[in-house]
Each structure stands twice: as structure tokens, then as C-alpha cells.
Design brief:
By secondary structure, this protein is an alpha+beta fold. The protein has two domains: 197 residues, Metalloenzyme, LuxS/M16 peptidase-like (Cytochrome Bc1 Complex, Chain A, domain 1, 2-Layer Sandwich); 186 residues, Metalloenzyme, LuxS/M16 peptidase-like (Cytochrome Bc1 Complex, Chain A, domain 1), CATH 3.30.830. The strands form two sheets. A six-stranded mixed beta sheet has the order 1-2-6-3-5-4, sandwiched between helices. It has a five-stranded mixed beta sheet with strand order 7-11-8-10-9, with helices on both faces. A hairpin with a 7-residue loop joins strand 9 and strand 10. The two termini are 30 Å apart.
Length: 448
Amino acid sequence: MLGGLAAGAALAPVWPACAKLLSVGRRQVDTFSLSNGLQVVALPSSRAPIVTQLLVYKVGSADEVPGKTGIAHFLEHMMFKGTDIVGPSEFSRVVSKNGGRDNAYTTYDSTGYYQTVSPDRLELVMRMEADRMANLRMTEKELAPERQVVLEERRMRIDNSPSALLDEVVNERLYGQGQPYGMPISGTVADVEALTLADLREFYRQHYMPNNAILIVGGDITSEQVRGLAERFYGPIPARPVAPRRRPDHGASGLPQTVSRADPRVREPRWSRHYLAPSYNKGESQYAYALQVLAQLLGGTETSRLWRVLVVDGKRALSAWAGYRPNSLGLASFDIGIHPAASVTMAEVESAVTAELGRLIDGGVGNDELERAQNQMLASAIYAQDSLQSGPRIYGGTLSTGSTVADIAAWPERISSVRPDDVVAAARHVWQPQRLVTSLLTPPSGIR
């Protein structure tokens, strides 16, 4: 909701930007780099006797090429297959036996591996994580069954979800076929079935090295302890050349477009708009903070404009939302979604949304409305201080896409400094037909 920086905002100093806005206090953060290029972030907190290690590689599905889609996610699975020291599939078993939990994830721009353990087990998981950074062993024996696991995961999360299938088409139409964000994170079935052990080994060799990674440790531990353990286990791993990451500065041609999916599994139709938008790194990035506030006041909560107009007052929708995440290495998207009420047509929904967007641009944004949205965002940042998981994940996603610790610290001030005219200017910039894909999700009978 807050563009990937909300939780990190808890690290910023108190800002007296406006007496009516909440203040966000500073949380301790220490960062340094090892001689091999590994960036380390320590987030000490004694609120609970646990610690989380998150290792984020600056590579994701958007770094793939057509014909090899799904390889970043496939390698994420293969990272659990062991080294000469840790046997196949033993990594998670060891973490569990020591009272911890672990998992991993793949996004368009990053891949992360994390463990939550007691502080006296941090040395164990850091040793194992460093070991598989340098010494992963993949064999043909493990490749075939894990391929089926990856394909089954796609079947469960994508192929069994009409909305997820439609969203893949939306991304392809918005960003372009074969373009970084136009290819699915899970890959196509044909590509995943064709990936070889040599493909995976080469992808691992190209991207998994300390100077292409960020280590974030949060919890009941000191920065000095994190530095000592990081130097001990990650420090000896040599750096290797890293290829530059590329993202286009434009989306697909031929917009606007409308895509639809009629599926017997659909019980709740959905109307959506997806606009190409700048991120922190691409496009007119000066609009990024105003767009976050715009998404919040337009459709971030049940007090937002769209919810009030379509759900509460108009009774034309069951729910309404807007979203924007600028924490992307390439262009982002500004999304609006509506679940229509029974007997309400897609055309009626589109007309109502279009009218509300027009009212915002023509009538502007009030100070009270703006401050309410800003306070909601700043409050989320304050609450995030109580979450051990949010700190590492926010830093991982932020630093892996080109932003800095200073950017995270400055987030509350930048959100607080957004003014009504900034919101309207951002809306005018993004809400253009040449940036737009509309999507319709319906049952087979359709909905007009």
C-alpha cells in the first residue's frame, strides 16, 4: 500500500512538517559493506528474543530472457537442494530442528531467502546461507522432481486462479510481450519444462555472489555481532563481475487496450484499470510520492473516495481499491479495481470510476482529505515498528531496486510534504489513455 517504504519509514527522525500530521520516530539502523561488496544492514531490536536473517539477491524474473522464463523462481527452489556440507533438502530441516522457520520468495526485481530463529542460532543459519551462496550443488536426480513441484505451484497459484491468469495478460499488454515485467514470475509451462541443469547453474553463476546481494539482520542482536558474523561467514566469498541490469523506460505500444477473461470459476466479477506509472527509478519519478498519497486517498481504505462513492453511497460495488508501488527497478503501475454489486454492469462501473477521477482532477483535493491519507500512511509506518518481519523485507525490496537507506529515512518527510496540487498533477500525468489497460473478469455468461 505504501510503495514498499512504509515500514522503513519507522527509521526516520521526527518531522515537524505539519502540526496535524503524525510524527514517525527513529529506529536504530546500521549499514556497512564487506570488502567483497556484500551490503549489510543491521536492525537491532530487543522487543522479542528472536532474530531474522534475510539475504536478498539483486535478481528476479525481470532479469530473465524470453525462452528462459521461470528460471529465477526455479533456482529459488533448487537453492534448498544442498551443498557438500548440508545434504539435499536438509537446510529447512536443520532450521526447523533448531526451532526456527525459513522460506524464500521471488519477485520481478529480487529473490530473497530468510530464516527466523532464536539469537543463539543466528550463527548456524548464517553459516548455512553463506555456504549455499558459494557452494550450491544441483544434480539431475533432484532436477526432475523439483521441476514438478515448480509446475504444481504454478498450477495452484496461477492456473487455478482466473484473476491471476488475467493479470498475466494485463502485464504483457501493459509492458509488452517479452519485456521484463511482461513475462510471468513463475514462467510459462513450456519454458519451465525446457530448463536444463546447465541453465540453472549458469544463472546461479551469473547472479549469486556477495557483491550482488544484501544481507539484512533484524531482531535481538547488536550491530557488532552482525558485523562479526557477516565478516566470518560471508567475508571469504569472492566477488565476481555483475552484468548491468536493464529495464525499458517505456511500456507497450498500442495502448489503450481492453482485455477480458470469462471463466466458469469466477464468482465475483472484477473491473480494473492499470496505468503505466513512474517508479523511483524510471519515468517522471518526481511524482512517486504524490502517487502514493493519491492511491491512499482514492482507494486505500474504506474511507477512501472510491469506496465512499461506489460502495457506501452508490451501492454499485462490493469493494473498491487503488494501489501503486513505486519501489521498482523499471516502470510501475497505478491500479484501480472494483467488484461490482449484483446487477451492476461493467459499463456502469467504468462510468462511475471515470466520473470520480474527473472530479478529482477538476475539483482538486482538500486539505483534510489529504492529511487523513497522509496520517493513515504514517500510522502504518509507526505500527510497522512492532513487526520483526517488516523491517528486513522493506530494506531488501528497497535496496535491491536502487534506493538507499537515506531514501527510507526520508520517506515520512517526503510523504508529509505532498500537497493537494502535487496529487492532482500526479493524477494528470498518469491517468492518460495511452498508458492504460482495462481488464474485465466475468463468469461465462458475462456481465455487460
